[in-house]
Amino acid sequence: MIDRTKVWSGTLNDVALAGRPKRAAKFYDTTLRDGEQAVGAAFDPEQKLEIARMVDGLGVGRIEAGFPRVSDEDKEAIRAIAKAGLKAEVWGFSRALVDDVAAVVELGLKYCVIEAPISDPKLAALEVTREKVLDRIRKAVSFATENGIHVCFFGVDSTRADLGFFEHVYKAALDVGAKEIAVVDTLGIATPEAVTFLIGKARGWVGPSVPIHYHGHNDFGLATASAVAAIDAGASWIHGTVDGIGERGGNANIPEIALALELLYGIDTGIDLTKVRKASERLRQIARYGLEPWKPVVGENLFVRETGAVAAQFHLPHAIEPYAASLLDTPRGIVLGKKSGAASITLKCEELGLKTGEDKVPVLLAEVKKLALQKRGLLTDAEFVEIVKRHG
Ligand SMILES: CC(=O)SCCNC(=O)CCNC(=O)[C@H](O)C(C)(C)COP(=O)(O)OP(=O)(O)OC[C@H]1O[C@@H](n2cnc3c(N)ncnc32)[C@H](O)[C@@H]1OP(=O)(O)O
Ligand SMILES: O=C(O)CCC(=O)C(=O)O
Prior knowledge:
It comes from Rhodoplanes tepidamans. Its EC number is 2.3.3.14. The chain is an alpha/beta fold. The protein contains 17 helices and 10 strands. Strands 1-2-3-4-5-6-7-8 form an 8-stranded parallel barrel, surrounded by 8 helices. Strands 9-10 form a two-stranded parallel sheet. β7 (212-216), α10 and β8 form a beta-alpha-beta unit. It starts with 11 loop residues before the first helix and ends with a helix. Bound molecules: acetyl coenzyme *A and 2-oxoglutaric acid (AKG). Acetyl coenzyme *A (ACO) binds at residues 37, 67, 69-70, 95-97, 115-117, 126, 128, 136. 2-oxoglutaric acid binds next to loops.
């Protein structure tokens, strides 16, 4: 549970949200399947197991271990993850094809997402008619159910599907045994308002007791806002990945959504935010990608300050930061550069245990700025120590 005294977002959000019901939010992690669809990512089975353990440690409720039809390696990874004794439920992924589902059954999984395209552009791309896809969905979901699998039906490109067909397909999947449904924004084109609308429609069609998932992508940078809207509209499971790794603009980013829900909406998500930065670092090593230093939640600059005006307020974190760095188990720090001020010099001297008089601060600051401009970058601590030796 978040220590709310460490959240400094003020009272505006509370005023704006007054009277709204607080919905529960749970996470379904698809780093190992949809995350791996990021160009160039290819996790080996050992790495998949490590990632699954890491994501389990973050506190997600469900982990999509993979799509067994892709390769024997994927099967091996799924088998290992299923046997790893994770707290999270382990889910498989399958197209609406009996042979795909058979591979999930063979692995002994108890839960599976079964997906099929439901928008006209997607059906046209596969050269499959609505009738044909309905038939495949009925056969695949029935086969899974007969084999004891708990199914979530996932309509690819839901947000561009004809509403009448959407309703028909989801009801058909439930009629043959699916227990849950996913509303899917495959191309990240839905506004948060459209997501609210579609989840509301789906809730009306499937009734109050069928869990609704929301699976979104970040092509317009709206995935977090849409996930929050989905929760507000009554979705119970949010799909996403660590760092939002995924195809194109990526998937919804679980830690980012959890941070917003916990800190701004006061909704408990079960995610351990103190573990998120390490998980992100490790995933970046494994999948070999970089992130912007200003990236919310995990960016390396979030609690590092260069500007002098901000350094002057460094002693009062709530004046310059939206929440305590300790909530993410992250150190705060001052760096020296062109934008440093007098307070930056004093703080850096304190941090490095350097003794110098108040009267020396202006000359040290001038030297710091000079070197920063020469370098077009930040000073190292060693460079600052040299300056203090020469001028302090
Ligand atoms: C398909 C997805 O969206 S899953 C998410 C994307 N993930 C990946 O692509 C993972 C890596 N991919 C792979 O390893 C391979 O591309 C595979 C295993 C997915 C596909 O293997 P392929 O043998 O190339 O399958 P292919 O694309 O030819 O499709 C086979 C059949 O499945 C049908 N099909 C494809 N997707 C679906 C679906 N979701 N539901 C029902 N039928 C489908 C096709 O229409 C085709 O039918 P046809 O034989 O009657 O023409
Ligand atoms: O078509 C795909 O990429 C697989 C399904 C999916 O993850 C999605 O539709 O977002």
